[in-house]
C-alpha cells in the first residue's frame, strides 16, 4: 500500500519547519495599571512569603525534633512543607522584584 501526501500537507509541514520562533518570557499586565498600589502589593506578598516560610520551617523543625511525629503521615507532611518552600522560593521573589521594577516578566516554559 502506497501513501500519497496531498500538496496541502506538504506545504503546511514546510511552513512549520520555517517557523522557529521561541518565546522565553511573558509579560503580565494585570498589576501594571495600579502604580500607587505597587508598594502595598509588595508588602502584602512579602508578608505572605515570610509567613509561608516560617510556617514550613516550623513544621520541619517540629517533625524532626519530636520522636512521636516520626510516622508516615508526618513524613509526608514534611515533604509537602519542603516542596512548598521550594515553590515559594522560586515564584515569590521574582514577583516581589517585579513589583519594585514595575515590569512583570514571567518565564514561558
TrEMBL record:
Alphabetical list of InterPro entries matching this protein: GPCR_Rhodpsn_7TM, Olfact_rcpt, Olfactory_GPCR
Classification via SUPFAM superfamilies: Family A G protein-coupled receptor-like
Keywords, sorted A to Z: Cell membrane, G-protein coupled receptor, Membrane, Olfaction, Receptor, Sensory transduction, Transducer, Transmembrane, Transmembrane helix
Membrane topology, record value: Multi-pass membrane protein
GO molecular function annotation: G protein-coupled receptor activity; olfactory receptor activity
Protein source organism: Mycteria americana (Wood stork)
Pfam families: 7tm_4 (PF13853)
Domain (G-protein coupled receptors family 1 profile) ranges: 55-109
TM segment ranges: 39-63
The name this protein goes by in its record: G-protein coupled receptors family 1 profile domain-containing protein
GO CC terms in record: plasma membrane
Cell compartment(s), UniProt: Cell membrane
Keyword Signal: no
Amino acid at each position: 500500500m502506497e501513501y500519497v501526501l496531498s500538496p496541502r500537507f506538504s506545504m503546511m509541514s514546510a511552513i512549520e519547519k520555517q517557523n522557529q520562533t521561541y518565546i522565553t518570557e511573558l509579560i503580565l499586565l494585570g498589576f501594571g495599571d495600579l502604580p500607587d498600589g505597587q508598594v502595598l502589593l509588595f508588602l502584602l506578598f512579602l508578608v505572605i512569603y515570610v509567613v509561608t516560610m516560617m510556617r514550613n520551617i516550623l513544621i520541619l523543625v517540629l517533625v524532626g525534633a519530636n520522636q512521636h511525629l516520626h510516622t508516615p503521615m508526618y513524613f509526608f507532611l514534611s515533604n509537602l512543607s519542603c516542596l512548598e518552600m521550594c515553590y515559594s522560593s522560586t515564584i515569590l521573589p521574582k514577583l516581589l522584584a517585579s513589583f519594585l521594577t514595575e515590569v512583570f516578566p514571567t518565564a514561558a516554559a
